[in-house]
Amino acid sequence: IVLTQSPGTLSLSPGERATLSCRASQSVTSRDLAWYQQKPGQAPRLLIYGASTRATGIPDRFSGSGSGTDFTLTISRLEPEDFAVYYCQQHGDSRAFGGGTKVEIK
Amino acid sequence: EVQLVESGGGLVKPGGSQRLSCVASGFTFSIYSMNWVRQAPGKGLEWVSSVSRNSDYIFYADSVKGRFSISRDNAKNSLYLQMNSLRADDTAVYYCARAPGRGLNYFEDWGQGTLVTVSS
Question: What is the 8-class DSSP label of residue A78?
Answer without folding.
Answer: -
